Amino acid sequence: MTLSWRYALSVWRRNASMYRRTWRWNILPNFFEPVLYLVSLGVGLGAYITTMGGTSYIQFLAPGLVCVAAMNGASFEVTYNIFVRMNIEKAYDAMLTTPIQPVDVVAGELLWSMTRSCVYGLCFALVVAAAGLAPLPQALWVVPVIPLTGLLFSAIGLAFTLRIGTIELYSFYFTLFLTPLFLFSSVFFPLEERLSASWLWVAECLPLLHPVRLARAAFFGPASPALLWDVAYILGVSTVLVAYSARLMRRKLTL
Amino acid sequence: MIVEVSGVTKRFGERVAVDGLTLNVPEGVCFGLLGPNGAGKTTTLRMVYGVTLPTSGHVRVFGMDVSRNVRAVRRRLGVTLQQNVLIETLSPRANLTIFGRYHLMDGAGLAQRVEELIDFMELRSHADVPVDKLSGGYQRRLAVALSLMNRPELLILDEPTTGLDPAVRLGLWARVRELRRAGATVLLTTHYMDEAQRLCDTVAIMSAGDVIAQGAPEELIGRYLARQAVEVEATPAQEYALLRGLGESPPRCRLGNRTMVYLDDPAVLLDRIRRLPGIGASVMAVRPTDLEDVFLTLTGTSLEDNR
After folding, report:
1. B302 pLDDT more than 70
2. pTM reported for the whole predicted model
3. B83/B98 Cα distance (integer angstroms)
4. Would you say residue B280 has pLDDT above 80?
5. Phi and psi at residue A13, to the nearest 5°
6. B112 min Cα distance to partner chain A (Å)
7. Which helix (H) or strand (E) holds B158?
8. Which residues pair with B25 in a beta bridge?
């Protein structure tokens, strides 16, 4: 069944109507997390570090944390929220009594989690800019990196959600997958500089590292053609996982 | 025909949920699917609106092959699921609005349709109360209202009145009759034989994935059982002693220590019970045979079989 964007948009609008009612409460914790890291590590730890990667430590942190905000925004949506909508509220069963198809559900949900990821990413980017940590206008290049980050982590999280049968498994996803990514994907230190040449490939496997590299290049340059590899990685992994999720969703909803 | 199910089998792994089923629902009727739990009723409905695909056989709705025209078919039908699927934190009005968008309705047209449905399903007084604060009757009416959003030509109701109080049930029946008068075709499942008898033009009794009897309720009663039912309190031994003298044994249906005996003329049996108090059987009720008797006779009364 081919995708219909109009039906996908109706799925997006359902989530948007729900979100309009609750954003005041749930935007705060997700949004403040990177702000707290920025203040604690940038101002606190940064006082003991003269430079990192050629800039002050707090400036080094800023672009990576924009990606972390986008990652968090997407991840909460495609994990707990989709799990509840799908398995507890059974919202998709109701949608499937209308012309909406499973592939529209997948597209609508991805659009929505990318929207949320953009809300978090852009809000945090504004904080960074207001604090004078973003060299404008060049740093505006980080704006397209935010939805890319959202797409990648929506695709990864959605595939995980469609594979698991119990909500408890998310503690593995957050503690053993997202937290290590957060700590090691060059947000806090340049990972590649700490790896010997024969281990550099490990860095390339980490999904968060690619958006972080793009964001940092947006802030401080250079605009090297090597960045195309990072874009290709994000789009390639997302495409594969979205196609996989669409198949899983169809099987789950239409027995 | 609005719905044509031809030679449909549905397997889930080893389990056969629907077994070579053929079923036709003509335009404008109210068609009831009856059957014990696990008989395949819900699976049949799911195949009609296309969320379950048959393992073999064909399902056509509005003359279209459902598996190839799912969107086109679903644009023209409405489904009330067995379990209400409502957004609990939102009001009926908000639920209806969101659901209308699933049908690509929007703006003034959607707002007008929402108000029409609020009136039609008598939700006006609670239209802005969060769903989780509403009684079961209001929630069920809202669920039915959702399925009417697109003015469906075919309305599918999966156990529409299970768990509702009598007043709400009567109200829902009235709405279903009204929709039928307006030309809609209704396909429903129910466990309530009185509901089927009073609401449906045709009923099909399913067992183990296939239809075992079909017809108008009155016609089915006449086809399978005598006109009167005598409910007798009697052990199997007492029942044997009682019926031994009656010549050919009439059809019976046992529920624990109670047995229902179906006769056109119950006088002979009643007379025998009165004249032979030594047997120890007593009459609980004499009443006209109804659809429930046919159902129990055809599908069995043992709880073990009802899986």
Report:
1. no
2. 0.91
3. 18
4. no
5. -70, -30
6. 18
7. strand B154-158
8. B3
**How far is B242 from B272, CA to CA, in rounded Å?**
7
pLDDT for position B306: 40
Q: Which of A160-169, A246-255, B111-120, B225-234 has the lowest mean pLDDT?
A: B225-234
B46 chain-A contacts, CB cut-off 8 A: 255
Q: What is the C-alpha end-to-end distance of chain B, expressed in Å?
A: 32
Q: Pick from A4, A13, A97: which is nearest to B147 by CB?
A: A97
A251 vs A248: CA distance, rounded Å: 5
Instruction: Give chain B positions within 8 Å (CB) of A101.
Output: 70-71
- ipTM of model: 0.91
CA distance B196 to chain A (A): 24
Question: How many angstroms separate the Cα of A200 from the Cα of each of A63, A191, A196, A204, A227?
Answer: 22, 9, 7, 7, 16
For residue A238, give the amino acid letter. S
Closest partner residue to A13 (CB to CB) among B71, B101, B146 is: B101
Name, of B94-103, B158-167, B220-229, the range with top average pLDDT.
B94-103
